[in-house]
Specification:
- It contains 3 helices and 6 strands.
- By secondary structure, it is an alpha+beta fold.
- The chain has one domain: Dimeric alpha+beta barrel (Alpha-Beta Plaits, 2-Layer Sandwich).
- A 4-stranded antiparallel β-sheet has the order 2-5-1-6. Strands 3-4 form a two-stranded antiparallel ribbon.
- A hairpin with a 2-residue loop joins β3 and β4.
């Protein structure tokens, strides 16, 4: 099963509140070694984002993210796991799980039945 990990900041987290654990390079190497890594990278900050909407046939492009949120998606990883429990285990070892938030979602391929 394919899962998307949204790596997000957490404005409520205190810096250094959860010391220890893996570095990002160690986490990436660990996930790759288990054969679970499909893709992943960091993202540019929200001020570099553009939001695109089409209304009345016109594309409307605005600067930054559409939502007014204090947290923002800092990166992503796509992983292959046997089940949700394995995906959660991998996400819990990510360094940003200590200082940010990791949202784990199973991919839902187009044309796949509702599950």
């Amino acid at each position: 099963m394919e899962f998307m990990l949204f790596i997000a900041t957490d404005p409520e987290a205190r810096p250094g509140a959860e010391p220890g654990g893996l570095t990002i390079d160690e986490w990436v190497a660990e996930v790759a070694a288990r054969g679970a890594s499909i893709a992943g990278d960091r993202l540019r900050p929200p001020e570099d984002a553009r939001t695109v909407r089409v209304r009345g046939g016109d594309a409307i492009v605005t600067d930054g993210p559409f939502t007014e949120s204090k947290e923002w998606i800092a990166g992503y990883d796509v992983i292959e796991c046997a089940d949700l429990d394995e995906a959660i285990g991998i996400a819990s070892r990510h360094p940003m799980a200590r200082a940010g938030r990791i949202e784990v979602r199973r991919a839902w391929p187009l044309g796949a039945a509702d599950e």
